[in-house]
Design goal:
- This protein is of the alpha/beta class and 731 residues long.
- Among the domains are: 115 residues, no CATH class; 96 residues, no CATH class; 170 residues, no CATH class.
- The chain is built from 31 helices and 23 strands.
- A hairpin with a 2-residue loop joins strand 1 and strand 2.
- Helix 11 packs parallel to helix 13 and helix 15 packs antiparallel against helix 16.
- It starts with 16 loop residues before the first helix and ends in an 11-residue tail after the last helix.
- 30% of the residues are buried.
Length: 731
Amino acid sequence: MFKACEDNAIALADLPKAVAELLREHGPSHVNVECLTSENVIKYLDLHPNRLGLHLSTVETDAAVEWLSAFWIWFNESSLKDELFPKLHKVYLLPCTAGLKTAERPVFQIDDEHLDLVQDLMMFGIPFLHSACAVPAQNVLAKCGLLKKINDIHALLENLSSCSYEALTLDETKAQRLLNHIASCLPASCSSNDRLSGEMQSTLRSLPVFCLVTTDGHNIKAQRTHIPIGSTVRGIVATSFRAILPRIAHTVYIDLSNDPREILPYLEPDQPEPMKHDQLLPLAAEHLAQQPQRLQATILKHIIDHQQSTKPSILEQLRQRSFVYTIDGTTYAPADVIDPSSSLVALFPESNDRLARRSNNVEKLIVEYLASLGLLQSSLTGVIIKDRIQYVSQHTAPPVAKALLKVLRSSNFNCQSVDFDPQARWLPTAQGLLNSSECRPRPTSEKESSLFDQVLHVLEDEITVSASLRLALGWDRPISFDILVKQLDRVLTKNMTGKVAPIIRELSKRTLTVNGLDALRKVISNRGWIPQSGDSNVLISTADAVISQPIEKAFYKISATLSDRKEVKDFLRMMGCSDEPSAGAIIKKLDALRGQSITEQTVSSSISLLKALPPNLDDEQHSKIFVPDINMVLQPVASVYFNDIGDRSILVSAGDGMFHAHPRMDESFCRDLKMGRLGLKFVHLQTPGEDMGEKPITTVSRTLGQYTKKQLLPEFIANAWTPKRPFSRYY
């Protein structure tokens, strides 16, 4: 075997067996011979190529293949096999089609049934054993693990890891052929060799056989290439998915529609199955903000086309992602961008950070698709309302305020969910922007406006307020008591008599506090404030008003529009009105008449008042009565006497605190007023004819009979007890 390497080598096989055994056993110790060692073999293997004049690492010759075949056959039978094998790894002992290879890695057996695949693998640098290698030698190599079949993917990948094929590109047929082979053989290979190591997986990913897909939303690019280092692999099988694949850092998409899906678990154990539609859409939504605008538009259009199968959570995810450009060049989430087709646009006239930019066709499509999906802000929210109120208040923007009120009404927004700032001036009136406590909606009736129109302003004519906003701003509640009192004060000052009755009716419905009563009494003090019956434009004071028993020219009945309601009458009584004039009120009126001019009207008024006096006056009240005398002057009742002596009264001098009653004061009336009588005071002036033949006691008795019991004694004493007429005269 090694004769060419050692001139003194002795081939024991050429000697008789007995001699050979003797020499092998005792030769080294007795003669100048030594046994072949593994070190000798390695030395001879290094020498052998030079002896043949060949560089066996690069050149393949039949002689070399033949000699190496013989070596491996000898090796298999050598007693040095176990000792020698580890020392052979760096030695070129494997005759391959492309030259000799070292024994540190296995080489592969040519598969005659897959010669195309063998040729493909040769392009990668995979070594294949020379076909001239003897079969017994091949068996030895296989036994030693130095010869593998191409279906041993582990060995194939291990060998590929030392190959250099970065610049290699494969056509579609070759790439698919190699990928199909690897995918079909991997299960059995893993079963025999355990699962792929990390290094093997990296080698597999480095093969330029995978159909990687990318898109910009318009153009789809599919290329057979390797998987970049550190990339996450996601498989797809539906070609319709190609157009919506989001660009994600360190992520690649493999199109497996024409390739074996079985390869995916070996590339990405965490993603062993191709993505389904309901997996791809959330991924696209999650990374939509990082995509080119054209791809964003394509993804949104895809969602529109598959809206029925799109989960609400995906739409909500899209709603919250910041990817929509506004006019100022900032990106916002669709939920924060106003739908240009909605009525909200009028609320943001100068808000470039809230209105979507539509500077090109793609941006127009994005906005259109988002609006179609209902992702843009198209309806009112409490946040928008408060934001716009603040804007209107700070920038004095009546058009925005009017637009907001219009949208509130048209959208039927529940305003009670909003915490309105009571101090914000955002409500448009003819007097400018006011807060909710300074104005009201335009009233629907004169009666309603009468309650506040001199204190509060009203919204502009064209504005209609929603019922919900009325509730939220408190406009559904009755006008406050303070406003009613101020309104009453102002309408009385301006003599706006037609507005008074509605105010009184409204006040009568309220439960008044002590302070409230005091405030109201202060307003109505010494002024007419109650509409008069028969002429509601005339206002009468509390002192002059009665509910049911008027006195002409003195006490006036309240208007029928007030007296027909019990609560109004109760309210007026509480404010000091009475059903009929009291004695004190009448007496006070009489006292007031004394300061007026002397006219028949004064007399008539006083007589009307006197007739209205109740019959049960006490002495103090009676003493304060004033009655008209013959000169139409009101005098204290005690100093005025009824003329019951006819023409003879001219004989009685007026003065000294005594006055004749006015002729319109008839006897019955004077008697009711307990007035004195001239007949009793001047009995001596009676005509003879009246008492002819009549005893004095009879005359006096008849005269006194005209007095009541209460009048009798005082009148009698008053008329009798004078210096000129001693009391004894009447007896």
